[in-house]
Specification:
By secondary structure, this protein is of the alpha/beta class. The chain has one domain: Thiamin diphosphate (ThDP)-binding fold, Pyr/PP domains (Rossmann fold), CATH 3.40.50.970. It is 40% helix and 11% strand. Strand 9, helix 9 and strand 10 form a beta-alpha-beta unit. Helix 2 crosses helix 3, helix 2 runs antiparallel to helix 11 and helix 6 packs parallel to helix 7. 51% of the residues are buried. Bound molecules: thiamine diphosphate (TPP) and magnesium ion. It catalyses: N(6)-[(R)-lipoyl]-L-lysyl-[protein] + pyruvate + H(+) = N(6)-[(R)-S(8)-acetyldihydrolipoyl]-L-lysyl-[protein] + CO2.
Length: 373
């Protein structure tokens, strides 16, 4: 289907959307402006199990598309810079990067409120940012500084922001899913009409605890949305080698499921909205987001021994979530290539400033020592 053209460029979408964002401020949410709505079809059809899928026609605005572009570019840059800091030994310990998967974080955030909860595994930097965390807190935490979101004591895998509905950051594969169903139980008990997104990988999808938690959630009609981020590998093992049925959206059997292109932020938004409505009325649902991680599993994995370089570059070329939005922005005359390039330069600078601040900040503070028994 041909993409619809935007009628006017009122509101100069380049300016107000993101210009207030700096490393001291959290990622902005997609602000609602009066710019006219656009309807854009998702990259691929949704595949449904035990339910009717939502429409492929997604309503958006020029400012939302701009914010998707900016937020994903910022996340990408932040992760790439974390890679360099790790190699410079300024970040130690475990570190799992999210570049490639950014559309999941921004699309989901665009569909929900911060009263809804998100809980995830160890690949958590970008989700933290989308939930209102700052880059200063990210880099401080990664470098073990007291300004980090867990006071520098959690590190890469343990980001948290409870006041904005972000419940971490968990290192034990799959363990966040029963915890997420517990949050959904609390939401139902309190009758507060919010939902929980419990995110896990294709590797975690084979764990028993996931099915035990899903059974309870289904018995009690809990507002739990299980999000399988299928990036096709669990460490160095391809999904097809680890799962007899890699159709993760169907693995809930009696629980409905939807499969979507997790590299299309608009598709993610559409399905998350649908899932929230569904979960509040009927209980759990599984969303399988087909995505890809560009980096290796963690910093000790170059990511190139169990997959070919052609596979990685093919995904970058054909499915990259940022490039998809860039094309939409340009083809709808919302922004020019040059304006987007300028924005990328500005983001690069913001990231550098955030790193410099995190490096300097907190070094003059009194060290807090914890004595273990
Ligand atoms: C219970 C448990 N078993 C094993 C590990 C080691 N481990 C860490 S990540 C991982 C792979 C998980 O892959 P997946 O769920 O697909 O998530 P992804 O890393 O792809 O985001 C494994 C086996 C662990 N942390 N916890
Ligand atoms: Mg995986």
């Amino acid at each position: 289907m041909a993409l619809p053209r935007i009628v006017s460029r009122s509101n100069n979408p380049l300016k107000p959307v993101s210009s207030f964002l700096s490393y001291t401020l959290p990622l902005h949410r997609s602000i609602s402006t009066n710019d006219s709505p656009l309807t854009i079809e998702t990259s691929l059809p949704f595949i449904a199990h035990n339910c009717d899928p939502p429409s492929r026609a997604v309503t958006t605005t020029s400012s939302e598309l701009m914010s998707f572009f900016r937020d994903m570019t910022l996340m990408r840059r932040m992760e790439l810079a974390a890679d360099s800091l790790y190699k410079a030994r300024l970040i130690r310990g475990f570190c799992h990067l999210y570049d490639g998967q950014e559309a999941v974080a921004v699309g989901m955030e665009a569909a929900i409120t911060r009263k809804d909860a998100i809980i995830t595994a160890y690949r958590d930097h970008c989700t933290f940012l989308s939930r209102g965390g700052t880059m200063h807190e990210v880099y401080s935490e990664l470098m073990g500084r007291c300004d980090g979101c867990s006071k520098g004591k959690g590190g890469s895998m343990h980001f948290y922001r409870k006041e904005n509905g972000f419940y971490g950051g968990h290192g034990i594969v799959g363990a966040q899913v029963p915890l997420g169903c517990g949050i959904a139980l609390a939401q139902k008990y309190c009758k507060d009409e919010n939902v929980t997104f419990a995110m896990y990988g294709d590797g975690a999808a084979n764990q028993g605890q996931l099915f035990e938690a899903l059974n309870m959630a289904a018995l009690w009609d809990l507002p739990a949305i299980l999000v399988c981020e299928n990036n096709h590998y669990g460490m160095g093992t391809a999904a097809w080698k680890a799962a007899k049925s890699p159709a993760y959206y169907k693995r809930g059997d009696y629980v409905p499921g939807l499969k979507l292109d997790g590299m299309d932020a608009l598709a993610v938004k559409q399905v998350c909205k649908f899932a929230k409505d569904h979960a509040l009325k009927n209980g759990p649902i599984i969303l399988e987001m087909d995505t890809y991680r560009y980096h290796g599993h963690s910093m000790s994995d170059p990511g190139s021994t169990y997959r070919t370089r052609d596979e990685i570059s093919g995904v970058r070329l054909e499915r990259d979530p940022i490039e998809r939005i860039r094309k939409l922005l340009v083809s709808h005359d919302i922004a020019t290539e040059k304006e987007l390039k300028d924005m990328e330069k500005e983001i690069r600078k913001e990231v550098e400033e955030a790193i410099a601040k995190a490096k300097a900040y907190g070094t003059d503070r009194k060290e807090v020592r914890v004595t273990l028994p």
